[in-house]
Amino acid sequence: MLERLHPSVALKVDDVIILDHDEVIKYLSTNPTLIEGVNFTDHRFFHMDYGYNSLNNPIKISYKDDLIQRIIIKTKNYSEKRLKLVISYDGSNYHGWQIQDKLPTIQGILSEKISEVNNKPILIQGASRTDAKVHANQQVVHFDDESNLTEAEWLRYLNHQLPEDILVESVEKMHPLFHSRYDVYEKEYLYQIKLGDKSPFLINYSWNQEYLDFIKLDDQLKKIVGTYDFTSFAKGNKGDNVRTIYRAGYKIHDDMLKIYISGNGFLRYMVRLIIMHVIKYATNKTDVDILNIIREKSRIHTKEIAPAQGLYLNKIIY
To answer: I need a labelling partner for 131 at 20 to 30 A (CA). Which of 41, 67, 293, 305 fits?
Structure first.
């Protein structure tokens, strides 16, 4: 394993964190049992392996360029029953994903129902923090369970207790170090636009536009594919704003335009700011090219944001 370490490898063993490549090698050479006899489980994803060492300690390894970039090992204080939920929801009646005092949120309601069974406060973790009125076709969450319920019993219980606008699609026991947010390989967002006449039945689920130039729309979407500093398309982010967009495109079915954007991660309001720009460009309300906006690293051309109700967290890939 030591010969496969990435130059930027990092190691975490319980509360010990080592970021220097040579120091990681030194620590593991001094404590060889930590990486001896590693047996990987069935939960293996694109860039992540989960398993146990010869001491039966859980271990998680992530990769970059086929080399080991991150190693996490727990020797104590880990849960034997970490559950993963795949859920979908209509965000119309909620103040977003993240729990807020005295306001209905998806995280708040789910945590409340799960805490009742565990007889202790449980704050679930999610793959993405959707904003108020944003929907999810697929959101992934996890929590550590101390109850005696099986996965099938959890599925029945939650779908009986939760409001009808939240659906738990599956419950699965995972490796103790699986993390719904930090282990994500790819997120895909969908934005729906109703073309032509406005429909009163879709006002909570799409944004209405009468006319679009699809050649211009396609041009702007194709240009965001790649790795860029998306400071111009972020609100309130002062840290690392570099993100990679894997794919961006659209499909049309009848009078519904569906724009898909997938990447390794997204900044706050990033998708809605991008959508607002490409729609303005495709409706001849601006002639500023999106690559010029990205290079500016400024919000001067991205002050407007697309409505929340058209946005869906569409897919999470690990």
So the answer is: 293
**Chain segment 165-222, per-residue pLDDT in tens:** 999 999 999 999 999 999 999 999 999 999 999 999 999 999 999 999 999 999 999 9
Whether residue 131 lies in the annotated active site: yes
**Does residue 53 contact residue 33 with C-beta atoms inside 8 Å?**
yes
CB-CB contact of 106 with 282 (8 Å): no
Compute the distance between CA of residue 83 and CA of residue 171 in angstroms, rounded to an integer.
7
Q: Give domain limits for the chain.
A: 2-73, 82-174, 186-317
Alpha helices in the chain (DSSP H): 21-30, 106-118, 151-161, 214-223, 270-282, 290-296
110-116, Cβ contacts within 8 angstroms, sequence gap of 24 or more: 110/85, 110/141, 110/158, 110/162, 110/166, 111/143, 113/157, 113/158, 113/161, 113/162, 114/143, 114/145, 114/158
Map residue 38 onto helix, strand or coil: coil
Q: Please state the separation of Cα 174 from the chain's center in Å.
A: 17
Structure-derived torsion over alpha carbons of residues 233, 235, 236, 238, reported in degrees to the nearest 10:
-10
Q: Assess whether the region 2-73 and the region 186-317 belong to the same CATH fold.
A: no
Structural domain 2-73, CATH architecture: Roll (3.10)
Beta bridge partners of 16: 13
Question: Do residues 273 and 296 make contact, with C-beta atoms less than 8 angstroms apart?
Answer: no
Q: Which of 90, 131, 165, 229 is catalytic?
A: 131
Topology of 186-317 in CATH?
Answer: Alpha-Beta Plaits (3.30.70)
